[in-house]
Amino acid sequence: SLIFIGVQVAAQLVSQQAGLALGEIFNPLLEASTTELSQLYFIVSMGVFLAVDGHHALVRALMDSFSAIPLLGFTPDGRLIDLLIGVIGSSFAIALRVGGPVMLALMLGFVTLGFISRTVPQLNLLTVGFPVKLAMALFLAAMTMISLEPVLIDGLNGVMDELREGLGMAVN
Questions:
Q1: pLDDT in tens, 112-158
Q2: CA angle, 54 then 138 then 147, to 5°
Q3: What is the rounded distance in angstroms from the CA atom of residue 115 to the CA atom of residue 118?
Q4: Number of helical (H) and strand (E) elements in the chain, helices listed first
Q5: Bridge partners for 27 per DSSP
Q6: Which helix (H) or strand (E) holds 117?
Q7: Distance between CA 14 and CA 9 in Å, rounded?
Q8: Residue 153 DSSP SS3
Q9: What is the pTM of this model?
C-alpha cells in the first residue's frame, strides 16, 4: 500500500498547488481528509495494479515469505529496517515521478503569471490566475494519468525485488 500512498501524496501535492484542496473528502482507508484528485489517482493506480496482475504477484510474494521464514521463526534484525527504508524510498520516488511534471509545470505557470502581473498591473490576477492554474493542473494531471502505468510497474517490480532481497530470497 505504500506504492499507492506515494501516488496519493503526489496527487495531494498537485491538488494543494492547484487550489483543488479546498474541497476535501474523507478517506476511510487513511482515516483522513484527501482531495478528489488523490482519490482519482488512487483508483486509477489500483486499476493498473489489478490489470497487470499485481494481486497475483502479491499473493505469490506472501506464499514465498512462508518458505523463506517458517511460521513462528521470524526474528527482527537489520534487514527488516533496510526493507522498510527501501520501500518508503520507492514510495517517495513514485510520488516524485508522478507529481513532479505537474508540479514543475504549475511552478512555471506561477512564474509566468507573476511576470504578467508585473507587466500588466491592471489585470486582476485573482480572477484570471485561478481558472488558468486550475485548467493547467487538470490537463497535466490527465496527461500524467495516461503515463501512470509504466511508473507503477517499475515501482511494483522494484518493491517486489526489495521484498525478495529483504527476505533473503533470490531476486529474479
A1: 888 888 888 887 877 888 888 888 888 988 888 888 888 888 888 88
A2: 35
A3: 5
A4: 6, 2
A5: 32
A6: helix 78-119
A7: 9
A8: helix
A9: 0.77
